[in-house]
Each structure stands twice: as structure tokens, then as C-alpha cells.
Amino acid sequence: MIDPYLPEHGDPSYHVEHYDLELDYRVVAGRLSGRAKITAVANTALTRFTLDLGVFKVSRVLVNGKPARFTHRAHKLIVQARIPAGRQFTVEVRYVGNPEPIRTRHWGELGWDHLEDGVLVASQPVGAPSWFPCNDHPRDKATYRISVTTASPYQVVANGDLVDGRVSASTTTWVYLQLEPMASYLATVQIGRYEFLERADDNVPLRAALPARLTEGYAHDFGRQTDMMIAFERMFGPYPFSAYTVVVTDDDLDIPVEAQGLSIFGANHVDGRRGAEHLVAHELAHQWFGNSVTIAGWRHIWLNEGLATYAEWLWSQASGGRSADELARTARLKLAKLPQDLVLADPGVQRIFDDRVYQRGALAMHALRLRLGDAEFFTLLREWTSKNKYGTVTTDDFKTLAQQHSSRPLDDLFAAWLHQARLPELP
Ligand SMILES: [Zn+2]
């Protein structure tokens, strides 16, 4: 099904199992040569299919190893090929160009972006085609192998585990394997002159890649991540990936961004005063809510942002700060002064990142918690993350599961918080 919020993205006629990306990137020239080999399965009998791909020159497309006819315009690569329904096939795309972010009407520039001295990729929701051909919809999750070759002074971080590294005369190749299914918007490459840090004594390895000048501030500002991980595993269930990496860029960033298995912060988020610790909690929580459990369509965004924002409040309380209830009541007072014209379960594409989605989403979770009681509420969250691990979900899925944790009907609560614009009172 085409996403009504972003109908020009993705192709529901097939699904991808695996992306194998071989990228060669020249930082100074800003030049990317890529070879993407995609393993997919046809959902229906195909005579053609599309991939989302930005401003590159495509030199060759092979389907099952044989040259295929294709056209490439308006960020769509249309490939002619006859594939029977249910059949697995491979498509290989060779492309070259100077990647640039995708310009969007509502969210500015997304995807592959240049730093002062390196690269940052932050794609949510539609930036992935800025660096590789993909079936760009969060419902179509796949495994990835990402190989990046670049000049040796630079370090590269991508999703998954670093499985291979080869140093030649002047370049280094970094190979990452992401074996847990991942949405295209969460795929990332980070390139910079970074130091690598790792805390090996943790249950989940906590890594960092950051400029040397920030290591001291980082040790303080991100120093409570071990405790945060323990608290979140207790509340949300086991951490879903093999490790967690924080990348801090040498540049300042407006907001941090999540990717699968990692988060990207700006130098400004290391202030030596833990001034951004709520964001540290927010981004870590996205590993459960958004990355492992992924929304099946963009209208369900409150499930990601509401739970990640609620995690900020839960962490505040768990770390001895203001209680989640206090923070919820303050947030409600603030929201009550803003226009009440947003329906949480269907905010409209231009408002998926409206702060009211975040705040009201967190409030809806708090209202549900007050109704269910702590024991049932956190059991529900853990069941949500285990039942939907590496899968995709909708608002209805959440309502159905929540109802199983309540002896009384929850229809009134969900109607008021999710489907009406007027802001309800907290219980
Ligand atoms: Zn978020």
C-alpha cells in the first residue's frame, strides 16, 4: 500500500530482503561512487518496478545479473523487468555523483550532508535516496552490508557491527553489517576525524565516536548512559541491538537524530553541564521505539515520538529529577495554551514533527499509565517491544495490545487522546 502521507516514496509491489552497498567517497571533492546490490522479492507479477534515488548518474542496472532497461528522473529509478509473483530477484545499480541532501517542503534538507570536515547522514523521513537506491518506506525493512572507502585520516561509522577494515596506501575501507532488519530512513554513514571510545564492562557495549577535543565533556555529559540503559531495559525490555554508538560531530546541530544502533549529536550537545541529557534519553529510547519497533506509515509517528519523549520524563524521575507526573502536568499546561487543532493519530504530513505530537504523545502514554497502573503499563511496554521486535506497527496495533492489559474498555481514553483535537484533562 502506498503511504498517503508520502505517496511518491516507496514501491509496494516488491519488498527488499538485503542491501549490499559498496561506496567510495572522496571527502574533499564530495564525490560518491556507489554500487548497490539489492536482493528483493516480488509481491505481485512485475513488468517494472521503481527505486528511490536522488541526483546521481546511473551507469548500469542489472536484474539477476543481466543488463536491464531503466529511466531515472525526479528521484525515481524505473527498471523494466519481468519477475513472477513471489520470486526472489537481485538488482544491481551503479551510480556516481556529488550527493546532496533531498530538499523537502516541510522539513528542510534531509539525508547525506556535508560537515565542515566530513559527512553526516540524517534521513528521517525521506532522505535515504540522497545516498543509495532504495524502496524508501519504513514498512520495508531489510538487512544491510555497508562498505565505505574513504581517505585514511577519516573514520567511518555506519549501522551494525564493524566486520572488516582494510587499509591501503591512502584509503581505508570500513565494512559494517546490520543483521537486524532496518528501515531505509535509519540507515546512516558518518564520516569525520573521530576518536573511538568504548565501555567494555557494560552489558550492552556503549561506544562513542567524537572529536578528541570533546572527550572530557562527553565523559561527564554522557556518563550516565550505563544507568540509563539499565533503567530502560528494566522498563522497556532488552536492548534490541548488539551495541549502541553515540556520534558527536565537530559541528553544532539543531537537534540530535536517531539511526539504528546509533545516535548523532552535535558538539553543542556536549556542554559539560548535562544540559542535553533529556535528549540523550530521548535518542536512546528510539532504539526500542522507532528503530526496533518501526511505524508502518508516517501517520503513526506519535508512537515513536510520544514514547521517546515519555522516556525523557521517565529518566528524569529514575535519575532523581522531577517526576514523570510533574513533567506531564507541566507539559499539559503548556499544550493547553497552544492551538488545539492537531489529531494525534493523524496529524497530517506537514506536522509529523510538530512538537505537539511529541508532548501530547507522551501525555497520552502518561494518561494510559495512570489508567492501567504501573505494573500493567510497563508489562504492556515490554510486551509491545518483544512482540513487535524488528517489525512494523500501527496505532491500532497499540490500542489492541493495550486493551488486553485493561479489564475496562479503553475506547474513551484513546478517543480523547488520539482521535480528537481538543486536549483532554489528565486523570
Ligand atoms: Zn525523537
Automatic annotation (TrEMBL):
Its cofactor is Zn(2+). GO terms for molecular function: aminopeptidase activity. It catalyses: Release of an N-terminal amino acid, Xaa-|-Yaa- from a peptide, amide or arylamide. Xaa is preferably Ala, but may be most amino acids including Pro (slow action). When a terminal hydrophobic residue is followed by a prolyl residue, the two may be released as an intact Xaa-Pro dipeptide. It holds the Pfam family Peptidase_M1_N. Residues 17-186 form the Aminopeptidase N-like N-terminal domain. Its EC number is 3.4.11.2. CDD domains: M1_APN_like. Residues 227-417 form the Peptidase M1 membrane alanine aminopeptidase domain. It is an enzyme of class 3 (hydrolase). Keywords: Aminopeptidase, Hydrolase, Metal-binding, Metalloprotease, Protease, Zinc. It comes from the Bacteria. Belongs to the peptidase M1 family. This is Aminopeptidase N. It comes from Kibdelosporangium banguiense.
